[in-house]
Design brief:
- With about 140 residues, this protein is mainly α.
- About 85% of the residues lie in helices and about 0% in strands.
- Helix 1 crosses helix 2, helix 2 crosses helix 3 and helix 3 runs antiparallel to helix 4.
């Protein structure tokens, strides 16, 4: 299967990021990384990301879904306890934030409906008073 057209840019971005990380580690630890080492780390990282993407796709497909969800990501991270804990924590935070946003939207929409109902009541009272004035 041919690689998608965005692969060269994505590989370059991974290589650049790995290079930056290696530079930070080199400065922190007082060591140096050769260009070949950085290239090897970049290639391994890219291949691992490809494997992750394929696994995530398979997890979703197994669940008869076309969209990858947070449970798929947790399943992928199951071999690393610290990563799984971190992802679970972030997933719970996102779920809580989403719930809070939904509640705020509900309150806003019910408040707007309440104003509309009050406005309608005022209009009805005014219409009644106009009717009684005409009689």
């Amino acid at each position: 299967m041919a690689a998608p057209l965005f692969y060269p840019r994505l590989k370059a971005a991974v290589h650049y990021t790995v290079g930056c990380l290696c530079q930070e580690v080199a400065e922190d630890k007082g060591i140096q990384f050769s260009k070949q080492t950085i290239a090897a780390i970049s290639e391994i990282t890219f291949r691992q990301c490809e494997n992750f993407a394929k696994d995530l796709e398979m997890f979703a497909r197994h669940g008869k879904r076309t969209v990858i969800n947070s449970e798929d990501v947790k399943l992928l991270a199951r071999r690393s306890n610290s990563l799984l804990r971190y992802i679970t924590q972030k997933s719970e935070e996102l779920a809580l934030n989403n719930l809070e946003q939904k509640e705020r939207k509900k309150k806003k929409s019910s408040a707007a409906k309440g104003r509309t109902t009050s406005d309608e009541q005022v209009e009805a009272v005014m219409a009644e008073s106009e009717d009684s004035n005409m009689a």
